[in-house]
Design brief:
The chain is α+β, with helices and mostly antiparallel strands and about 80 residues long. Strand 1 and strand 2 form a beta hairpin. It has three helices and two strands, in the order αββαα. A two-stranded antiparallel sheet has the order 1-2.
């Protein structure tokens, strides 16, 4: 895991955003408070951000899109 963290950290450093990644207890994770993410804003209640499409090219995201569509239609 150290090598993966180092590689990702170096890549992010090139863009001056290495602080969005941290390693803790042998796990690597992003620090959501360090960047702006419309999905996190959506989860915090900004439902108007969803416009009917969510990561459409990813099959694994279909279930979440259905949930969001149902919420959009019930507003």
């Amino acid at each position: 895991m150290k090598k993966e963290y180092l590689t990702k950290s170096q890549t992010l450093s090139k863009y001056q955003i290495a602080d969005i990644l941290e390693s803790c207890y042998g796990k690597m994770q992003v620090v959501p408070e360090k960047y702006d993410c419309d999905y996190y804003q959506y989860l915090d209640g900004s439902r108007n951000l969803f416009k009917g499409e969510y990561m459409g090219t990813y099959v694994w995201a279909e279930e979440e899109q259905i949930i969001q569509l149902n919420e959009l239609l019930s507003i």
